[in-house]
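lol forgot to send this yesterday, sorry. struct tokens for the thing we talked abt
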């Protein structure tokens, strides 16, 4: 049985209309989803990353890779990069350390005016020797402090910065990938996960240095 040309024409119109509706719907989903091909957001101060509202950064005091006591508040007047890692980490932490080294290179002489703090999430494994070796391996020596301590000393810092850290069965530690940018006044400005780029962090630090 053959379909009349009038009926075939109507089916064609209906099919075309449905295709238009589908295309419009898909485009709407894309434009409403910032993660779908969108560039990182920039807040009013020109910083990229998740805006933290300039809340005061919780202070703490720990021991660095050289055995010296270090507090967050002692660096008032300089931008601070604060992250959390452990020396025997097989993946994310070494990559983050390499990124931080590259950012120091991109900053040039300005790197001497930016403080980088890494708080250990491994009280047992991160000894002074391990922290020093990790720092030297990744060529992090300029204004770099790998902070270690006991579980009782470190866990309040984790809690203050919403860091989850838990040993798993294979001796790998599951933890929150977090990097905070703190300004010269000791205020939390932006947050990055481990997918930040060298250029994003470098540009943000230049903004904070100029403030």
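and heres what i got for the seq, position by position
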């Amino acid at each position: 049985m053959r379909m009349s040309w009038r009926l075939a024409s109507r089916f064609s119109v209906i099919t075309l209309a449905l295709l238009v509706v589908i295309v419009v719907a898909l485009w709407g989903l894309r434009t409403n989803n910032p993660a779908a091909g969108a560039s990182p957001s920039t807040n009013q101060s020109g910083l990229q990353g998740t805006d933290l509202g300039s809340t005061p950064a919780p202070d703490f005091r720990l021991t660095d890779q050289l055995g010296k006591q270090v507090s967050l508040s002692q660096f008032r007047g300089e931008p601070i990069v604060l992250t959390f890692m452990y020396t025997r980490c097989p993946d994310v932490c070494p990559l983050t350390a390499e990124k931080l080294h590259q950012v120091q290179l991109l900053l040039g002489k300005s790197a001497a005016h930016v403080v980088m703090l890494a708080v250990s999430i491994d009280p047992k494994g991160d000894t002074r020797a391990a922290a020093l070796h990790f720092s030297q391996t990744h060529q992090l020596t300029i204004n770099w402090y790998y902070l270690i301590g006991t579980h009782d000393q470190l866990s309040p810092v984790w809690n203050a910065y919403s860091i989850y850290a838990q040993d798993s069965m294979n001796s790998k530690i599951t933890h929150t990938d977090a990097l905070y940018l703190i300004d010269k006044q000791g205020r939390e400005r932006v947050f990055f996960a481990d997918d930040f780029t060298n250029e994003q962090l470098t540009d943000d630090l230049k903004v904070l240095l100029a403030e």
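The longest strand covers residues 50-56. anyway ping me if u want another try
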